[in-house]
TrEMBL record:
EC code: 5.1.3.3
Source taxonomy: Bacteria, Bacillati, Bacillota, Bacilli, Lactobacillales
Keywords of this entry: Carbohydrate metabolism, Isomerase
Name this protein carries in UniProt: Aldose 1-epimerase
Family: Belongs to the aldose epimerase family.
GO MF annotations, alphabetized: aldose 1-epimerase activity; carbohydrate binding
InterPro entries per UniProt: Ald1_epimerase_CS, Aldose_1-epimerase, Aldose_1/G6P_1-epimerase, Gal_mutarotase_sf_dom, Galactose_mutarotase-like, GH-type_carb-bd
Enzyme class, broadest EC rank: isomerase
Length: 331
């Protein structure tokens, strides 16, 4: 493992396995920076994860890219939540909503770090009681591990001293061609999901699951991202692509993606019930093109705290939260 300076007193950790797969992570926002695959004919590397060159550049361009999103990923309606019979007002950072935990969140701070051998890094931080309105002093950790079988493991865990809600994710973006200024439209996508979650005009879930049958959300067999990009479906028109949760029907190999040249594949396994796929519909054009990357956010359902039938993101005082997601690279 190599450790380098990354700006703003942050560090960059570069892990490499015996197959030549490289994973770069930083304690600034506990984020994934690069995933480099030795897939080129000349023996060169293809970086498939959207990345910035420094902590300063993330701040300037897009601080969510690759970051750990805590305590709650996605949007919370009304910027309010009721927990154990008490209503809490949360920081409103979109009109009438809380997005990705509010303002000045943990994606903007340097987490504590610890290296465990040559293939594992642990990042930890504390969200103080009342942080952006969320109750409880929440101790948060994320463990990144690069395995010999070309798996990037992303494991979250947390504990709070008060009843609270917790629903983390990682905001990594992929382009398996490594060409971030070209559309992902010709990437092949397969999702083990019979249902997806439609959105309203405010980008919040409507509170129902819709069957994928006969829609551009049906990826039960391999299909192109372009299926949705060129569709006239009201949901893809609403967000100019995809920004939707799919209800996963299995944990193992829940999502598969292949680059157009078939040289790089991605298999995603997770113990979380949803995968939110966002296709960079409103791009930071210095980083990537419109539809130039896709996120793969494995998490509980967005706004589950305010919707019936969307599962629970409640975390009781003293109980430990844990989640495991695995990104397997193939070439």
């Amino acid at each position: 493992m190599k450790i380098e300076d990354f700006g703003r007193e942050a560090k960059l950790f570069i892990l490499e396995n015996d197959n030549g797969l490289r994973l770069s992570v930083t304690n600034f926002g506990a984020r994934i920076v690069k995933i480099e695959v030795p897939a080129e004919q000349d023996g060169g590397y293809r970086n498939v994860s959207l990345a910035c060159a420094s902590a300063e550049e993330y701040l300037e361009l897009d601080p969510y890219v690759g970051a750990s999103i805590v305590p709650v990923a996605g949007r919370i309606s009304g910027a309010r939540v009721e927990i154990s019979g008490k209503e809490y007002a949360l920081t409103e950072n979109e009109p009438g909503r809380t997005l990705h935990g509010g303002v000045n969140t943990a994606n903007l701070r340097n987490w504590e770090w610890e290296c465990n051998g040559k293939d594992e890094v642990l990042f930890t931080t504390v969200l103080e009681d009342g942080f952006n309105g969320f109750p409880g002093r929440i101790e948060v950790g994320v463990r990144y591990c690069l395995s010999a079988s070309n798996d990037v493991h992303v494991d979250y865990f947390a504990r709070s001293d008060k009843d609270t809600i917790f629903n983390p994710t990682n905001h990594v973006y992929f382009n398996l061609s490594g060409q971030f200024f070209e559309s992902i439209g010709q990437h092949q996508l397969k999702i083990a999901a019979d249902y997806y979650v439609p959105l309203g005009e405010d980008n919040l879930p409507l509170g129902e699951f819709a069957a994928v049958d006969g829609t551009p959300f049906d990826f039960r067999e391999f299909a192109l991202f372009e299926t949705g990009f060129s569709s006239d479906h009201e949901q893809t028109n609403l967000v100019k692509g995809y920004d939707h949760p799919w209800k996963l029907s299995r944990q193992e190999t829940a999502v598969e993606v292949w680059s157009p040249d078939k040289k790089v594949g991605l298999e995603v396994s997770t113990d979380q019930p949803a995968a939110v796929i966002y296709t960079y519909n409103f791009p930071q054009e210095k980083l990537a093109a419109y539809h130039g990357v896709f996120s793969m956010e494995c998490q509980g359902f967005p706004n589950a705290c305010n919707l019936e039938g969307f599962g629970s993101i409640f975390l009781a005082a003293g109980e430990e939260f844990s989640s495991q997601t695995r990104y397997r690279l193939k070439w």
